[in-house]
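For reference, the entry.
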Amino acid sequence: MEFHPDKPLSWLYKDAAPENYFKVETQWMPAEGYAESDKATLREIAVRTILRSSKLDNMEPSIPYLAVNYFDRFNSSNEIPRVQGGLENDLDLVAHACLLIAWVVRDMVSISFPEFARKRKLILENLMMVEPKIAMAIKWRLTITPLSFVDFFVGKMPQGKGIRYRTINKIIIETQDDISFTRFRPSVIAASAVLSACSLLYSNEYDRNKHILLASVGEYLDLEKLAECLKKTQKMCFVKQLRMEKVEGTSKIGEKEGTELVGEKEGTEVGETSSSASRRAGKEPMVEGGEGEIDPEEDMNFELEWMKWRSEEAAGTGRLDSPKYRMPAPPEEPKLSWTDPRFQHYGLCGICRRYGYCTSNNCNSL
């Protein structure tokens, strides 16, 4: 069976049921308390770096999304490694290493490590030194995210198939620039995204769909956390004024078929044309077809709106060399030479003290 990044268990176990993801999903979450920690500042800087860097290769949104997931899990339990000197440079390196890992997971064929480093003016050796450290720190758990649960929840609601997957994917991915969402399980975020889309596209049917969904999957979800996450997700949709889309042919009479805008953001286009996305990194070139043909890659064909209404200055406030972000490096032990007086009591001969070795039978260095 071919490996699918969003459904890794189906690759490991041919008969893996979607319910198996609920049993292991917490292993793909940051450490508890991460959202309230001082590391939120480092995270905001890293998210900006990942977003900016992903645009250099026109990556599809799932790649920076995975990269931030890796960064959160690494950053929540580890110090930023000392490689390039200051914390700012090391943080930049770690953020890019997370993006590189995510790109490999999504698209191993087209990526070139030297080209990736050259475009971003990184030292390739440093990048290759940090990348395995991050992968090992997160125990090579690279793919279970809220996206892994979308099919499961969509199939539990009558109106689920009427919501475009692009809408659900966008809601999920847009939650990630808010660190407070890291407190929720991936399944809770996925369920909140599906219910949010349903409430905005099928408001008259929402209560019935929600009841049916919870009746069938309530045993897997913390309903209190779901209510909290759902409220935050719906608020985010309004604040960011996301475009909701229905599957063609499911609109009611009198509605504009296909799309519905949350808020009043006139002239905003969330998606791209097929031609503008045809070379997006992370997927094969799209084949333009006639009307009615389905292109599954359209499900990730939209622009990220992370940090859109946040000040650039906010991310750089405070001193990054503060101990609350990374403890000071321990002082280096002085390197002793063989001529150092402290070696004299070992009875080393003159040749040994000078050159570090000798062949004298009476020398204690043998």
